[in-house]
Amino acid sequence: MFRCFLLLHINLPSGAGGYTPSNGVTVATVQATDADTGIFGQVSYSITAVSNSKNANDNAISKFRISGSLGVVECIGSVSGDEQYTITVRAADGGTGLDQRFATTVSEGIPTGSSVFASPASDPERDTLQYSMQDITNNNIVISDFVMNTSTGLLTTRNFARETSTSRSATATLSISITDINDNNPQFLNNQLFTFSVQEGQNSQVAVGTVTAVDNDAPGTPNSAISYSIQPLPPNTFQNQFSINSNTGAITTVQPLDYETQRVHYFLVLARDNAVDSRTGTATGNRQCPGCTGQRTHLHRD
Protein backbone atom coordinates (compact mmCIF):
# COMPACT_ATOMS: atom_id res chain seq x y z
CA MET A 1 0.00 0.00 0.00
CA PHE A 2 1.33 3.39 -1.02
CA ARG A 3 0.10 6.58 0.61
CA CYS A 4 0.35 10.31 -0.01
CA PHE A 5 -0.91 13.26 2.03
CA LEU A 6 -2.36 16.64 1.02
CA LEU A 7 -2.85 19.71 3.19
CA LEU A 8 -5.99 21.73 2.42
CA HIS A 9 -6.37 25.26 3.75
CA ILE A 10 -10.08 26.07 3.90
CA ASN A 11 -11.27 29.67 4.27
CA LEU A 12 -14.98 29.59 4.97
CA PRO A 13 -17.21 32.24 3.36
CA SER A 14 -18.67 34.99 5.50
CA GLY A 15 -21.96 34.05 6.96
CA ALA A 16 -21.04 30.40 7.23
CA GLY A 17 -22.90 28.76 10.04
CA GLY A 18 -24.10 25.45 11.29
CA TYR A 19 -24.10 22.47 8.99
CA THR A 20 -25.10 18.90 9.70
CA PRO A 21 -24.35 15.56 8.04
CA SER A 22 -27.71 15.82 6.29
CA ASN A 23 -27.12 19.31 4.88
CA GLY A 24 -23.34 19.47 4.55
CA VAL A 25 -21.68 21.85 2.12
CA THR A 26 -18.88 20.92 -0.29
CA VAL A 27 -15.72 22.90 0.46
CA ALA A 28 -13.17 21.11 -1.75
CA THR A 29 -12.55 18.15 -4.03
CA VAL A 30 -9.24 16.35 -4.17
CA GLN A 31 -8.02 13.86 -6.72
CA ALA A 32 -5.01 11.54 -6.79
CA THR A 33 -3.97 9.11 -9.51
CA ASP A 34 -2.07 5.83 -9.39
CA ALA A 35 -0.43 4.32 -12.49
CA ASP A 36 -0.80 0.75 -11.21
CA THR A 37 -3.57 -1.58 -12.38
CA GLY A 38 -6.24 -3.43 -10.47
CA ILE A 39 -6.57 -2.83 -6.75
CA PHE A 40 -3.07 -1.37 -6.73
CA GLY A 41 -4.37 1.55 -8.79
CA GLN A 42 -7.61 2.12 -6.83
CA VAL A 43 -7.28 5.23 -4.68
CA SER A 44 -9.26 5.86 -1.52
CA TYR A 45 -9.36 9.04 0.59
CA SER A 46 -9.55 9.76 4.29
CA ILE A 47 -9.11 12.73 6.62
CA THR A 48 -6.35 12.19 9.16
CA ALA A 49 -6.25 15.60 10.90
CA VAL A 50 -8.02 18.98 10.98
CA SER A 51 -6.84 22.12 12.79
CA ASN A 52 -8.66 25.40 13.53
CA SER A 53 -6.42 28.48 13.31
CA LYS A 54 -8.66 30.37 15.73
CA ASN A 55 -9.18 27.65 18.33
CA ALA A 56 -6.55 24.96 18.90
CA ASN A 57 -8.90 23.11 21.26
CA ASP A 58 -11.69 22.90 18.71
CA ASN A 59 -12.72 19.35 17.80
CA ALA A 60 -12.32 20.36 14.20
CA ILE A 61 -12.01 16.89 12.71
CA SER A 62 -15.64 16.20 13.55
CA LYS A 63 -16.76 19.11 11.36
CA PHE A 64 -15.57 17.69 8.05
CA ARG A 65 -15.90 14.48 6.09
CA ILE A 66 -14.61 13.17 2.77
CA SER A 67 -16.00 10.74 0.26
CA GLY A 68 -13.68 7.72 0.35
CA SER A 69 -13.91 7.10 -3.39
CA LEU A 70 -14.61 10.60 -4.83
CA GLY A 71 -12.43 12.86 -2.68
CA VAL A 72 -15.25 15.33 -2.03
CA VAL A 73 -14.68 17.24 1.23
CA GLU A 74 -17.78 18.53 3.03
CA CYS A 75 -18.34 20.69 6.07
CA ILE A 76 -20.89 19.05 8.34
CA GLY A 77 -20.45 20.98 11.62
CA SER A 78 -20.87 24.42 13.16
CA VAL A 79 -18.30 26.89 11.83
CA SER A 80 -17.94 30.69 11.51
CA GLY A 81 -16.82 32.78 8.58
CA ASP A 82 -13.64 34.11 10.16
CA GLU A 83 -12.18 30.66 10.86
CA GLN A 84 -9.50 28.96 8.78
CA TYR A 85 -9.14 25.19 8.79
CA THR A 86 -6.22 23.05 7.67
CA ILE A 87 -7.27 19.55 6.61
CA THR A 88 -4.86 16.68 6.07
CA VAL A 89 -6.15 14.27 3.44
CA ARG A 90 -4.59 10.85 2.92
CA ALA A 91 -4.78 9.10 -0.43
CA ALA A 92 -3.88 5.39 -0.46
CA ASP A 93 -4.02 2.67 -3.08
CA GLY A 94 -5.57 -0.76 -2.54
CA GLY A 95 -2.31 -2.73 -2.25
CA THR A 96 -1.37 -4.92 0.68
CA GLY A 97 0.87 -2.27 2.16
CA LEU A 98 4.48 -1.64 2.84
CA ASP A 99 4.34 -4.14 5.67
CA GLN A 100 6.53 -7.11 4.77
CA ARG A 101 7.14 -10.46 6.39
CA PHE A 102 10.60 -11.86 6.94
CA ALA A 103 11.70 -15.18 8.44
CA THR A 104 14.95 -16.25 10.02
CA THR A 105 16.22 -18.97 12.36
CA VAL A 106 18.25 -18.61 15.54
CA SER A 107 20.26 -21.27 17.37
CA GLU A 108 19.39 -21.58 21.05
CA GLY A 109 23.11 -21.38 21.87
CA ILE A 110 23.58 -17.98 20.22
CA PRO A 111 25.40 -15.49 22.51
CA THR A 112 23.52 -12.62 24.09
CA GLY A 113 23.55 -9.51 21.92
CA SER A 114 24.00 -11.40 18.66
CA SER A 115 22.44 -9.90 15.54
CA VAL A 116 19.32 -11.69 14.35
CA PHE A 117 17.90 -9.38 11.68
CA ALA A 118 18.61 -5.96 10.16
CA SER A 119 15.64 -3.98 8.86
CA PRO A 120 16.01 -3.05 5.16
CA ALA A 121 13.73 0.02 5.47
CA SER A 122 14.81 3.33 3.94
CA ASP A 123 13.28 6.72 3.23
CA PRO A 124 13.38 8.11 -0.35
CA GLU A 125 13.95 11.57 1.06
CA ARG A 126 16.71 10.26 3.31
CA ASP A 127 14.91 11.33 6.44
CA THR A 128 16.00 9.71 9.69
CA LEU A 129 13.96 6.64 10.54
CA GLN A 130 12.93 5.48 13.99
CA TYR A 131 12.33 1.78 14.56
CA SER A 132 10.17 -0.01 17.09
CA MET A 133 9.10 -3.58 17.67
CA GLN A 134 5.65 -4.66 18.72
CA ASP A 135 5.39 -7.02 21.68
CA ILE A 136 5.75 -10.67 20.71
CA THR A 137 3.24 -12.76 22.60
CA ASN A 138 2.55 -16.44 23.02
CA ASN A 139 -0.74 -17.32 24.70
CA ASN A 140 -0.96 -13.71 25.94
CA ILE A 141 2.50 -13.90 27.53
CA VAL A 142 4.99 -11.31 26.31
CA ILE A 143 8.22 -12.81 24.97
CA SER A 144 11.21 -10.65 25.82
CA ASP A 145 13.94 -12.67 24.11
CA PHE A 146 14.74 -10.00 21.50
CA VAL A 147 15.41 -6.28 21.47
CA MET A 148 15.44 -3.77 18.57
CA ASN A 149 17.75 -0.78 18.22
CA THR A 150 15.41 2.18 17.60
CA SER A 151 18.00 4.04 15.52
CA THR A 152 19.43 1.28 13.31
CA GLY A 153 16.59 -1.28 13.18
CA LEU A 154 19.00 -4.04 14.22
CA LEU A 155 17.32 -6.91 16.09
CA THR A 156 19.52 -8.66 18.67
CA THR A 157 19.09 -11.39 21.26
CA ARG A 158 18.79 -11.31 24.98
CA ASN A 159 19.90 -14.27 27.10
CA PHE A 160 17.59 -17.14 26.23
CA ALA A 161 17.38 -20.85 25.52
CA ARG A 162 14.83 -22.57 23.37
CA GLU A 163 13.74 -24.88 26.20
CA THR A 164 13.25 -22.08 28.72
CA SER A 165 11.90 -19.40 26.41
CA THR A 166 8.19 -18.93 27.09
CA SER A 167 8.42 -22.00 29.28
CA ARG A 168 5.48 -24.20 30.11
CA SER A 169 5.29 -27.14 32.46
CA ALA A 170 3.48 -30.44 32.44
CA THR A 171 3.38 -33.37 34.82
CA ALA A 172 3.10 -37.08 34.20
CA THR A 173 3.01 -40.12 36.45
CA LEU A 174 5.48 -42.84 35.53
CA SER A 175 4.84 -46.39 36.66
CA ILE A 176 7.77 -48.79 36.37
CA SER A 177 7.07 -52.52 36.47
CA ILE A 178 9.98 -54.87 37.12
CA THR A 179 9.73 -57.98 34.98
CA ASP A 180 10.69 -61.31 36.46
CA ILE A 181 13.56 -63.42 35.20
CA ASN A 182 13.79 -67.14 35.85
CA ASP A 183 16.45 -67.06 38.57
CA ASN A 184 14.99 -69.49 41.14
CA ASN A 185 15.10 -73.29 41.12
CA PRO A 186 12.02 -75.24 42.20
CA GLN A 187 12.42 -76.32 45.83
CA PHE A 188 10.69 -79.26 47.52
CA LEU A 189 8.86 -78.26 50.66
CA ASN A 190 10.16 -80.82 53.12
CA ASN A 191 13.70 -81.36 54.24
CA GLN A 192 12.69 -84.60 55.99
CA LEU A 193 12.41 -88.14 54.69
CA PHE A 194 9.13 -88.86 52.90
CA THR A 195 7.74 -92.25 53.84
CA PHE A 196 4.99 -93.89 51.79
CA SER A 197 3.64 -97.40 52.43
CA VAL A 198 1.99 -99.52 49.75
CA GLN A 199 0.68 -103.06 50.13
CA GLU A 200 1.83 -105.51 47.50
CA GLY A 201 -0.53 -107.23 45.14
CA GLN A 202 -2.99 -104.32 44.81
CA ASN A 203 -4.42 -103.26 41.49
CA SER A 204 -2.95 -100.34 39.52
CA GLN A 205 -3.62 -96.65 40.27
CA VAL A 206 -3.00 -97.07 43.98
CA ALA A 207 -1.92 -93.81 45.63
CA VAL A 208 1.65 -93.93 46.90
CA GLY A 209 2.02 -90.29 48.07
CA THR A 210 2.38 -86.69 46.90
CA VAL A 211 5.47 -84.54 46.66
CA THR A 212 5.25 -80.75 46.43
CA ALA A 213 7.76 -78.16 45.25
CA VAL A 214 7.56 -74.39 45.05
CA ASP A 215 9.27 -71.81 42.83
CA ASN A 216 9.86 -68.27 44.18
CA ASP A 217 9.70 -66.59 40.76
CA ALA A 218 6.70 -64.41 39.86
CA PRO A 219 3.40 -66.20 40.64
CA GLY A 220 1.15 -67.01 37.73
CA THR A 221 3.97 -66.99 35.20
CA PRO A 222 5.77 -69.83 33.42
CA ASN A 223 8.79 -69.01 35.61
CA SER A 224 7.00 -70.38 38.68
CA ALA A 225 4.66 -72.99 37.14
CA ILE A 226 5.97 -76.48 37.99
CA SER A 227 5.69 -79.80 36.18
CA TYR A 228 6.65 -83.11 37.85
CA SER A 229 8.21 -86.22 36.41
CA ILE A 230 9.62 -89.43 37.92
CA GLN A 231 12.60 -91.59 36.99
CA PRO A 232 13.99 -94.82 38.52
CA LEU A 233 17.40 -94.79 40.15
CA PRO A 234 19.86 -97.72 40.23
CA PRO A 235 19.68 -100.46 41.32
CA ASN A 236 15.98 -100.25 40.24
CA THR A 237 15.05 -102.21 37.16
CA PHE A 238 11.29 -101.62 37.14
CA GLN A 239 9.63 -100.45 33.99
CA ASN A 240 6.42 -98.41 34.13
CA GLN A 241 5.56 -99.47 37.68
CA PHE A 242 4.97 -95.93 38.98
CA SER A 243 3.65 -92.68 37.52
CA ILE A 244 3.38 -89.11 38.78
CA ASN A 245 0.78 -86.44 38.01
CA SER A 246 2.76 -83.72 36.24
CA ASN A 247 0.59 -80.96 37.75
CA THR A 248 0.00 -82.17 41.33
CA GLY A 249 3.02 -84.38 42.14
CA ALA A 250 0.76 -87.30 43.15
CA ILE A 251 2.54 -90.66 42.74
CA THR A 252 0.49 -93.78 41.89
CA THR A 253 1.20 -97.39 40.91
CA VAL A 254 0.89 -98.46 37.31
CA GLN A 255 0.69 -102.20 38.04
CA PRO A 256 0.54 -104.48 41.10
CA LEU A 257 3.78 -104.65 43.10
CA ASP A 258 5.47 -107.86 44.26
CA TYR A 259 7.48 -107.78 47.47
CA GLU A 260 9.48 -110.88 46.63
CA THR A 261 10.54 -109.48 43.28
CA GLN A 262 11.54 -105.93 44.39
CA ARG A 263 11.64 -104.89 48.02
CA VAL A 264 13.05 -101.39 47.59
CA HIS A 265 12.31 -98.91 44.81
CA TYR A 266 14.47 -95.83 44.29
CA PHE A 267 12.98 -92.75 42.66
CA LEU A 268 14.25 -89.49 41.19
CA VAL A 269 11.46 -86.94 41.21
CA LEU A 270 12.03 -83.92 38.98
CA ALA A 271 10.28 -80.59 39.51
CA ARG A 272 10.85 -78.37 36.46
CA ASP A 273 9.48 -74.86 35.88
CA ASN A 274 7.86 -73.99 32.54
CA ALA A 275 10.11 -71.11 31.53
CA VAL A 276 11.96 -71.12 28.22
CA ASP A 277 15.21 -71.35 30.17
CA SER A 278 13.73 -73.87 32.60
CA ARG A 279 15.32 -74.76 35.93
CA THR A 280 14.96 -78.04 37.84
CA GLY A 281 14.75 -79.22 41.43
CA THR A 282 15.07 -82.90 42.40
CA ALA A 283 14.06 -85.25 45.18
CA THR A 284 15.28 -88.82 45.53
CA GLY A 285 13.48 -91.65 47.19
CA ASN A 286 13.82 -95.30 48.11
CA ARG A 287 11.20 -97.83 49.09
CA GLN A 288 11.91 -100.39 51.77
CA CYS A 289 9.88 -103.05 53.49
CA PRO A 290 10.55 -103.73 57.18
CA GLY A 291 8.41 -106.83 57.04
CA CYS A 292 6.88 -109.15 54.57
CA THR A 293 3.31 -107.89 54.75
CA GLY A 294 3.81 -105.13 52.26
CA GLN A 295 6.09 -102.63 50.62
CA ARG A 296 7.23 -99.22 51.91
CA THR A 297 8.65 -96.33 49.87
CA HIS A 298 10.94 -93.64 51.25
CA LEU A 299 11.57 -90.40 49.36
CA HIS A 300 14.54 -88.20 50.15
CA ARG A 301 14.91 -84.55 49.06
CA ASP A 302 18.17 -83.54 47.38
Automatic annotation (TrEMBL):
SUPFAM superfamilies attached to this UniProt entry: Cadherin-like (SSF49313)
Lineage top rank: taxon: Eukaryota
MF (Gene Ontology): calcium ion binding
Signal as UniProt keyword: yes
InterPro entries tied to this protein: Cadherin-like_dom, Cadherin-like_sf, Cadherin_CS
Subcellular location as annotated: Membrane
Domain Cadherin: 24-188, 190-284
Signal peptide feature range: 1-18
GO cellular component terms given for this protein: plasma membrane
Keyword Membrane: yes
GO BP field: homophilic cell adhesion via plasma membrane adhesion molecules
Short name of one Pfam family: Cadherin
UniProt keyword annotations, A-Z: Calcium, Membrane, Repeat, Signal, Transmembrane, Transmembrane helix
Name of protein: Cadherin domain-containing protein
